[in-house]
Amino acid sequence: MTEPVASGSKRRSTAATRRRKREQEILDATRALFDAAGMREVHIDEIAKAVGTNRAIIYRHFSGKDELFALTLVGYLDELHGRMRSVSEGHEDPRERLSAHVEAFVDFGIEYPAFVDCAQALMRRPGPELLEVLSEPALFRLGRGISGCLALLTGALDDGVAQGTFHVEDTNLLANHMYATGLGALQLARVGMLIKELAPGIPTIAPLSTEQVRRYLVDTSLALAIGTPD
Fold first, then answer.
1. What pLDDT does residue 172 have?
2. DSSP per-residue string spanning 198-230
């Protein structure tokens, strides 16, 4: 009697392995298309074609386009986390560590514009709406990806507070603020222009470099973290 049970368990395990492999192939294809053409230019049919299947199969693995794109964002976040952790190694000074994290974030966003598009697309949705379009496992993976990056920022902020270098009441809130405003600044860097008044009522534009955005984000992050002692 035990042999059929064992056989059935093995079949289920093999099927689950095949399913995970197919899901990863779809995510890898989505990421490759995003990097090549940008998120806004990629459609489900193109992704299906890239993995040699059809859109019906895509929707067997993901609840919808939003979930597919959210889990593609997780791949970006995992890579970003590795870069942020790597550049901060050896920095004992929390100011240096925070600066290294912010610089890595900017460089990653400039290198992968689709990461910024994915992250902003999800942030534009109200929380309850996001809960409706993503499955619980997808939400967990997305939350883990974001929180992993934020934990590096929070760790630097917490160390700075402990040393008396930073004066932050809620380090988690500040880390989330840095993430959200950083995405906006990366979009500004992509545009590469500032709009200002040349004279009252007369607009003009000025060039904006990636280095200016990087420096601005580092300086503002440090200023917010250092704050004012009570």
1. 97
2. EETTEEEEEE--HHHHHHHHHHHHHHHHH----
